[in-house]
Amino acid sequence: MALIKRVPIKPEFNIVGLRRLTIGFSIALALLSVVLFAVQGLNFGVDFRGGILMEVRTKAETADIADFRDRLNDLNLGDVTIQRFGEPDTVLINIQEQEGGTEAQAAAIERVKATLDEVVESYRRTEFVGPKVGEELKQAGILATALALAAMAVYIWFRFEWQFAVAGLLALIHDVLATIGFFALTQLEFNLGTVAAVLTIAGYSINDTVVIFDRVRETMRRYKRKAMPELLNMAVNSTLTRTVLTSGTTLIALIALAIFGGAVIRSFTWGLIWGVMIGTFSSVGLAVPLLMFLGVKPSTMSTGEESEKEAAERAAGKASV
Amino acid sequence: MLQIPRWQTALIVLVLLIGVAFASPNLISRQATDNIPDWLPNQQINLGLDLQGGSYLLLEVQTEAVIEEQLDNLVDEIRVQLRGERIGYRNLGVEDGAATFTLRDPTQAATVEELISDIGGQLQVSVGEDGKASVRYADTAVQERISNAVQQSIEIIRRRIDETGVREPTIQRQGERRVVVQLPGIDNPERMKEILGKTARLTFRLVDEDVSPQSSRIPPGSEVLPSDDETPEGTPQRRHVVRKRVMVSGENLTDAQPTFQQGQPVVSFSFDTVGAKRFADVTKNNVNHAFAIVLDGKVISAPVIREPILGGNGVISGNFTVQGANDLALLLRAGALPAPLKILEERTVGPGLGADSVRAGEFASVLALVAVIVFMAVAYGLFGILADVALVANLILIMGALSGLQATLTLPGIAGIVLTLGMAVDANVLIFERIREEAGNFRGPVSAVDAGYRRALTTIFDANITTLIAAVLLFYFGSGPVKGFAVTLAIGLVTSMFTAIMVTRLLVAGWLRRRRPQALPI
């Protein structure tokens, strides 16, 4: 009755044998992302760019974007972008920061409202972010990401060996780059929520990586005589079902959110969906094979107390209800 | 591992019951929660401004103005002191954050240093051999001044907002000079911004009638100020020459109310005893002369004194609208800000979008929950259903924790819950896969389940702690809605570890004891 019965407990894919391919793919993806970021740049939202953002619902069932453009162009507010947002009657207006401090922003918002009064039913959202704050938010975002990566690497170093920390960190950097590349390619809005998405992806990816690393360590302790590729393959394969299932349930939940969760967090959710896929891939295809290149061998592993204790327990056959 | 002591079972059940108790007020309407007795949990989840609608303002106290004013006052004080002792000086002014002047006779340096130190307020005086003197406040004094100004600003902001009748505003200091103001339910903050944007420093001063505003020779004790009313082109209607000396200031007001005089909106005010006496003295001595009522550097009106005003009451009549008179009265009652405020960030969400977001978030969460539940049941059969029980328990615990801690739930916070739903079953998948593996190693069901739970434990901890690190950093560096995401993610991680490990273990152990199966269904 349970479908899992049909899934082999220990699949035998030679994933580590494909390491040149998977690592090559990761490097290509990371490089491509950097190039995309350099060429296309990110579509920074009002959080980081500064300026004014307004989300309005029109009286008409379908908003007349051209009419909006005409009305707002007459106000001479500088750079203005107008786009449909989610529903056909919802419009998002981005206006650059106005010169002349607080009053100028308030005045610009007032003028826009006066101009649009005839066609707009309600103002759903009005945001203004000063350039100073935008710059600070950007810096805080970069700092938070860097600190999070460093803290996770330190934790892994503390719990495993240094090679695991380096491999995990490289996989994390890969995930962050690939996510930035995704946002550069799609030109989805990059805002505060996106930074949260990037950090969550990092957290999710490292979670995945740690589960596999844990099994790598255990396998290495148990089979001291086997060759590294074989050991790593064993570890990846015995956690593979879990890796796929967990990504599966998380993706199911996120897709529900992306489709039905509303337009406000849509770019956030798509970032997460991409990140979960990339994070899963990088754990298996990048972090694990990297361990080999970093020179992890069964002989370098300390014989943890854990395994000895477990061996003793197993010998005694101690386990009861 | 499967021998669960009675006290542990009791504890697990107790935690779940507490979770249910804290989560349950969310099932009834907000009004009905008032009927819950105080000793029971009666708080609902606190919705962020992005979900309930409202306005968020980040203000910065322009403390430069305070420092400047402090230096200007210092210059005045130095002038008075030097003149009083008949010490010659020139070029008295402000330069690089210090009051500077040059002594005509450098040998008077020691006398001057002593004289100025006596002014007080942690002054640092240095006089060079060439007679060049500079006087500055110690850094600690400046810091204290800034800190006081921000503290005082928060107090005034609070009073002004309270006067407007907004319900449940939050006003918090952020960092050294910033103030966060959150106004639930306000979807058009323009009036609020106008009220907070005014320093509202009111002074009563005499008009200098000896010179005309066009004159190029304005005496040092006077200044030219624009009138408050503007022409359609945005330039002031009139200019007035006003003496710098303040007769009475807004600090001496005890009350201000909007009212009508000859059909025009005006603001009536009352002075305290000190103010009333000063005002009486000045008006007695200046009958038939004009005085100016100045608000934030603009002249509201400049009436001529017909007779001494002795009662300490008066009326300000300007070119007011009803709203304008209301706002001015409000500002005068709440008091002047020590420094102007600048709005750095504003986020306003209308009630429509908030309600839509709640609806969309709820729908997506339920859908995600159902999808994950079906997935787990199909994949793992009975064990999957046990994990689903734990998943629902997890959701209840998250709701209970959010209500009990009165953490704020935001739209990204809902996303955090949905994400946790997907990730929460991870621990169970880990455990179940481990059990499958151990059962494959020719262990009996009991032994396999036991080993499965035991071995998966460290992995689950390591994996979740790394994610928790990300959540904590997000909370620390994030702002507003993003903080809400970090909160639900962190709460979800902790509760999911509890439900996925403790609750399912209790269920699985119970099942094993009752059925004593020969083989596991996974």
TrEMBL record, chain A:
<dbReference type="GO" id="GO:0043952">
    <property type="term" value="P:protein transport by the Sec complex"/>
</dbReference>
<keyword id="KW-1133">Transmembrane helix</keyword>
<feature type="transmembrane region" description="Helical">
    <location>
        <begin position="234"/>
        <end position="260"/>
    </location>
</feature>
<dbReference type="InterPro" id="IPR022813">
    <property type="entry name" value="SecD/SecF_arch_bac"/>
</dbReference>
<keyword id="KW-0811">Translocation</keyword>
<comment type="function">
    <text>Part of the Sec protein translocase complex. Interacts with the SecYEG preprotein conducting channel. SecDF uses the proton motive force (PMF) to complete protein translocation after the ATP-dependent function of SecA.</text>
</comment>
<dbReference type="InterPro" id="IPR022646">
    <property type="entry name" value="SecD/SecF_CS"/>
</dbReference>
<feature type="transmembrane region" description="Helical">
    <location>
        <begin position="140"/>
        <end position="158"/>
    </location>
</feature>
<keyword id="KW-1003">Cell membrane</keyword>
<dbReference type="GO" id="GO:0065002">
    <property type="term" value="P:intracellular protein transmembrane transport"/>
</dbReference>
<dbReference type="InterPro" id="IPR055344">
    <property type="entry name" value="SecD_SecF_C_bact"/>
</dbReference>
<comment type="subunit">
    <text>Forms a complex with SecD. Part of the essential Sec protein translocation apparatus which comprises SecA, SecYEG and auxiliary proteins SecDF-YajC and YidC.</text>
</comment>
<comment type="similarity">
    <text>Belongs to the SecD/SecF family. SecF subfamily.</text>
</comment>
<keyword id="KW-0472">Membrane</keyword>
<protein>
    <recommendedName>
        <fullName>Protein-export membrane protein SecF</fullName>
    </recommendedName>
</protein>
<keyword id="KW-0812">Transmembrane</keyword>
<feature type="compositionally biased region" description="Basic and acidic residues">
    <location>
        <begin position="309"/>
        <end position="321"/>
    </location>
</feature>
<dbReference type="InterPro" id="IPR022645">
    <property type="entry name" value="SecD/SecF_bac"/>
</dbReference>
<keyword id="KW-0653">Protein transport</keyword>
<feature type="transmembrane region" description="Helical">
    <location>
        <begin position="272"/>
        <end position="294"/>
    </location>
</feature>
<dbReference type="GO" id="GO:0006605">
    <property type="term" value="P:protein targeting"/>
</dbReference>
<dbReference type="InterPro" id="IPR005665">
    <property type="entry name" value="SecF_bac"/>
</dbReference>
TrEMBL record, chain B:
<dbReference type="Pfam" id="PF07549">
    <property type="entry name" value="Sec_GG"/>
</dbReference>
<dbReference type="InterPro" id="IPR005791">
    <property type="entry name" value="SecD"/>
</dbReference>
<keyword id="KW-0811">Translocation</keyword>
<comment type="similarity">
    <text>Belongs to the SecD/SecF family. SecD subfamily.</text>
</comment>
<dbReference type="InterPro" id="IPR022646">
    <property type="entry name" value="SecD/SecF_CS"/>
</dbReference>
<feature type="domain" description="SecDF P1 head subdomain">
    <location>
        <begin position="235"/>
        <end position="339"/>
    </location>
</feature>
<keyword id="KW-1003">Cell membrane</keyword>
<dbReference type="GO" id="GO:0005886">
    <property type="term" value="C:plasma membrane"/>
</dbReference>
<keyword id="KW-1133">Transmembrane helix</keyword>
<protein>
    <recommendedName>
        <fullName>Protein translocase subunit SecD</fullName>
    </recommendedName>
</protein>
<keyword id="KW-0997">Cell inner membrane</keyword>
<dbReference type="GO" id="GO:0065002">
    <property type="term" value="P:intracellular protein transmembrane transport"/>
</dbReference>
<dbReference type="InterPro" id="IPR048634">
    <property type="entry name" value="SecD_SecF_C"/>
</dbReference>
<feature type="region of interest" description="Disordered">
    <location>
        <begin position="210"/>
        <end position="237"/>
    </location>
</feature>
<feature type="domain" description="Protein export membrane protein SecD/SecF C-terminal">
    <location>
        <begin position="342"/>
        <end position="511"/>
    </location>
</feature>
<dbReference type="Pfam" id="PF21760">
    <property type="entry name" value="SecD_1st"/>
</dbReference>
<dbReference type="GO" id="GO:0043952">
    <property type="term" value="P:protein transport by the Sec complex"/>
</dbReference>
<dbReference type="InterPro" id="IPR022813">
    <property type="entry name" value="SecD/SecF_arch_bac"/>
</dbReference>
<comment type="subunit">
    <text>Forms a complex with SecF. Part of the essential Sec protein translocation apparatus which comprises SecA, SecYEG and auxiliary proteins SecDF-YajC and YidC.</text>
</comment>
<feature type="transmembrane region" description="Helical">
    <location>
        <begin position="363"/>
        <end position="382"/>
    </location>
</feature>
<dbReference type="Pfam" id="PF02355">
    <property type="entry name" value="SecD_SecF_C"/>
</dbReference>
<comment type="function">
    <text>Part of the Sec protein translocase complex. Interacts with the SecYEG preprotein conducting channel. SecDF uses the proton motive force (PMF) to complete protein translocation after the ATP-dependent function of SecA.</text>
</comment>
